[in-house]
## 1
Amino acid sequence: MTQPLLLEEVHILRLAGIDEPFAVTSLSPGVNLVFGPNASGKSSLIRAIEAVLWPSANKRPLVTISARFHLGGDAWHVRADADSTRALRNGSPVSALALPSPEFRHRYRLSLHDLLGSEVGDGGFAAAIARASVGGLDLAGAASTLGYNNKPPTRLQARSDWDASRVALDHAHHQAAALHREAEQLAELERARDDADLARTDIARLEAALRWRDADARTLAAERELNTLPSGVGALTGREVADAESLLVQWRQLASDRARVTRQRDDAARVMGELFPEHVPTDAERLAWRALVSRLRDCDERCERDTLSLRASEAERDHARQLCSVLATDTQLAQ
């Protein structure tokens, strides 16, 4: 003979549709009637009981529910928290509850409509509950006298409608989750694009610093060449006039090059003074900047690729949003 499960108390800390935690305690070992107006938590209480007794069938991860009950002479304490469930039997941990398969859990849920629509059984009990729920008035008799047909839908039809609604809701959750993941990817691409834009603004400054370094190196080289000219004056050979004319041409060319390089160095020094008013970079820093410029150019190329990917993702997001059956904003999809 199947042992009855005697539920003692249920604590709902977190559940979809519940704004504040609440608890149902001091439950009777016999029949417990859950009565209240619409949106008072009746259906949520039933879902919470099913979630803690059949956690494998719970498709809502954001739940925190605990329950105490007796089954087969054993005291049980079960807590369902997100995607994990912990069960204690007589204070000792166990792996699973010895309950019927989750596919049959609807057999243990009996609503007032089921009682009123039942063709067999204790119709007087159902009628007494119906009269008590409306203040003792015989609404069924009044409806019969007035000719109204208020027979509720059959349990099979209600179950079929509920299953169809649940499938549609799960599908909507999957679509919302996919759009949320896509929104996170778009946000990451936008952050990468912003970083690349900041890096691009630094390239001009680094290139100016490198030009100053090159101009300074050319100036020093020109000065060393000019200093070598008087070294051969002591060994005259008779061709000094021609050599002097040739050297004069070379000296004028070098002087012109030196003046041009000096101007370039001064311009580069002025740019360096504007960029680095408190510290003149060393040669090692300039070489490091040259390597950094190369890396920034690579970042710029990756930015262009990320921008193309971002545009493609935005197109996919707009297409997915058009496929949604409800109009949702990005904030609602993220929730």
## 2
Amino acid sequence: MIKQHLRNGLERRRLFVIRHGHVDYYGHGIANPTAAALTPRGREQALQTGRALAAIPLDVIFHSNVTRTAQTVDLLLSQLSDKAPPVRAIEQFRELAGGPLSEEAERHETVGALSEAFYESGGEHGSARVMNGPESFAEGQRRAESALRLLLDSHHWQQAVLVAHDVINRLLLGGVMGVGPAAAGKLEQDPCAINVIDFVGQRAPADGRFCVMRRYVKMMNFTCYDTIKQATPRTSLEHLFDLDLATYWSAS
């Protein structure tokens, strides 16, 4: 357990930022990829993650209010040993808004385009977009950091979980590290990856806002099902679509 209250009225708060479990956006019968549900693999990943969190006294669990994050939360809750914490949906943590996946494109073409978008996530002032979508990486980072500010100010908790998404988690981590959206393509987020962010600060007497004095990334992209990444040698996008892009790169 972390030491919550420090000297001089300072307070330490810990946020477990978790990506949802594995999904298949090209699965049978999926008309809207944003409504994709967890696969059996994703459900098992979430159960293992829940068992890892079971002994931690959590005050609240937040999620982005889509099917795959809500299902991940339900599976986490099923493994918690103590009284289940309340659950709050914060839609502003939704995934970066990308363009539509082409029904005609081959899987490797789609993954290749997504991979390039991720790697060019900085662009000029973070102006790159996923599949020519309506939201740039910089805009997504501002939205996520605004939601994080709300989460710190409007909710009283010491240890909390946020279940969100691949790109949004990358942007949140990049913001904490002060590197901006350009780092998103280099920060991997595997399904059900656990990231730990600590905040040290105090509440302002006038309005109750939590004034952050220090923030630290304590852990990043830890997966309970593959702790040293021997079973996940490819990028998260390649694993998501079950492809090895190096095959196509070497053939081109």
